[in-house]
Amino acid sequence: METMKSYLEIWNVTKTYKTPTGDAVIVRDFNLKIQEGEFVCLIGHSGCGKSTVLSMVAGLNEKTSGGIILAGREIDGPGPDRGVVFQAPCLFPWMTALENVLLGVDEVKPKERPLQRKLIAERYLTLVGLGDAIHKRPAELSAGMRQRVGLARAFALDPKMLLLDEPFGMLDSLTRLELQESLLELWRQDKKTALMVTHDVDEALYLSDRVAMMTSGPAATLGAVLHVPFPRPRNRKAVLEHPDYYKLRESMIGFLESQDHRGEPKPPEPEKPEEEPVPTLEAEP
Hints:
Blueprint lengths: L7 E12 L2 E13 L4 E5 L6 H9 L6 E6 L2 E2 L7 E4 L11 H12 L5 H14 L15 H14 L4 E5 L7 H18 L2 E5 L3 H7 L2 E5 L7 E6 L8 H6 L3 H13 L28
Parallel strand pairs: 3-8, 3-9, 6-7, 7-8
Antiparallel strand pairs: 1-2, 1-4, 4-5, 9-10
Helix pairs in contact: 2-3, 2-4, 3-4, 4-5
């Protein structure tokens, strides 16, 4: 059987910062391959380097060593082939929602007619549920609505890959669930390859095809990869009722609990002998 070629390949990536007391290794020998159209969540304890990995893929943070290849080209800086959604949407306050989205569309699609570019921006704002608010400025929008603008802006660029850095981390629980549905609906349109950082186990299981779990820092790396078997399109009720849901959830929590703040395994807990073994890192071809 022919092996599928990875769309994004991160190999042996290390990130080190210089400090007065010597080099501080944040991420060491990180390896991950993602297929085209795959949705992968990256999860781990706070401070383990999840966002550092994402920012290196975005080209916003230079790697110390290793390589990152997207669609056959090595990443050496930021570019419109990657749409990035941050925890805070970073909208220009003097611009309307439409103007904020259109700004990026104008930049990446200069050959399109102005009317066509406007229609693209309007389409994605409508898809995220902001059809009636396209002329409102950020101050007139709730936190959830502002993040919807951020999602629309990323998708409207028609990037090769989506990079999401805890995009719903600052939202209340109800808004978070609503935005997860909006994200899945947008993603279903053309199945963009996606890498999303999250600290939420349930969010990772609901959204992703695979969950990549990082060890704790310093010198964090990829510890395990969990395959998520739930069929698409997904329904939250059906996912929660899937016979494997809680087994997978416990596997993820078990892995995270095995890591202390120094990245060293804790002693096994004898009171849980029936627990499923932690998923192991998938073998690379």
